[in-house]
Amino acid sequence: MAKNDTQKLFMELTNDINILMEFLRAKFPVFHNSNFFFRDLQFGIKSFFEKKEINLSYSESEELARLVADYLQKEGIFIPTSKQSWRVNYPEFETAKPGDPFSYSYQS
Q: According to the lineage, what is the superkingdom (predicted)?
């Protein structure tokens, strides 16, 4: 199996980070001020590319997750709570009822 170009895949993810964030929200309970964990990010990225028929190895998905996590921290979307977890700072995912990930307040 040919090795994927990690930098190219990283650029694809970060060119429109909203697409990845929406995908993660559909797959995991991600909402504003929620906790998010490294393995969820890793397997979310792996699943994201599988939908595009791009298969990543465990190590490739782990490397991409580290790059994306660093990017999201620099953008202020991930606030570190430990080496492997973050608080999500993404007001677009704010819920209408505090703590209820299924009551998103959609704003125009």
A: Bacteria
Alpha-carbon torsion (23, 26, 32, 36), positive or negative:
negative
85-88 and 78-82: which strand pairing?
antiparallel
Alpha carbons within 13 angstroms on the beta-carbon side of residue 86 total 25
Q: Which two tokens stand for residue 52?
A: 């595009």
| Separation CA 101–CA 13 (nearest Å) | 24
* Cα–Cα distance for residue pair 74/34, rounded to 1 Å: 18
pLDDT digits (tens, 9 = 90+) for 81-91: 999 999 999 88
Q: Which domains does the chain have, with CATH numbers?
A: 6-93 (1.10.10)
For residue 63, the SS3 value is helix
